[in-house]
Amino acid sequence: MTSDQDSPTGPGGPTRFVTFFTTLPGIITAAAALVTAIGGAFYGGTQAATPSPTVTVTQTEWRSPSPAPPTAPVPPVPSVSDTTTVSPGPTGAAGALRGSYSFQLPALYYAPLGPQKPTQPDIVGATNSSGDISWKADQGGQQIEAGTSERMLALPNGSTPTYQACSTGTQFITGAPSTPGSVFCILERPGLIAGVQVTSVNENSPTYVTLQVSVWQGP
């Protein structure tokens, strides 16, 4: 049974309780309790005042790039052969110069007189009926003659043939001498006029005559 001396409410109880807190162990105990109470109150207030951090989650959605819109097919550009046909033939007004050149005509051969200088195949393949000019070096006078379908016109020796002189002259001849300085015209069919000058003659082998030719568009 507890005696009245040991009870805090008994005789001497309050005095002993107060006396305990005046001792060093009592002071330490009271200070520890005070610190604990203050720390708990501060921690509780801080927890209440500090809001919880907000976490933001960003979701990235990957999408494949949209396909490019289809491109309309480009129609092919038609070539010239698809739309037009170019036919060779006389061009330009009457008197227009179509060609000018010098070439060597072998003896006993024929040659065409067109806008371009005659080539070896042109001379080899020409005949009395298809050629425009020939050199009859095996005949007397070594005459230069026109083809069977053309007409030959004389001009003054040493002159320069012109379209005007060749298209208006009337001194028709069957052949012209193959001497240097000889000048004449050949009226071709179809539609060309050639003015011819003999510039030189080589009578040794190989035998040939050098001719200067101008070709105009005929009337």
Outline of this structure?
This protein is an alpha+beta fold.
User: What's the alpha carbon Rg, rounded to whole Å?
Assistant: 64 Å
Task: State the helix count.
Answer: 5
Reported for the largest beta sheet, the result is: 6 strands, antiparallel
> In sequence order, what are the helices and strands, one letter per element?
HHHEEHEEEHEEEEE
Overall mean pLDDT stands at 74
How many beta-strand elements? 10
Residue windows where pLDDT falls under 50 for at least 5 positions:
1-10, 74-90
Shape: rod-shaped
Category from helices, strands and their pairing? alpha+beta
Strand content: 15-25%
Query: What strand order characterises the main sheet?
Result: 1-10-9-8-5-6
Termini distance?
A: 165 Å
- Helicity level: 10-25%
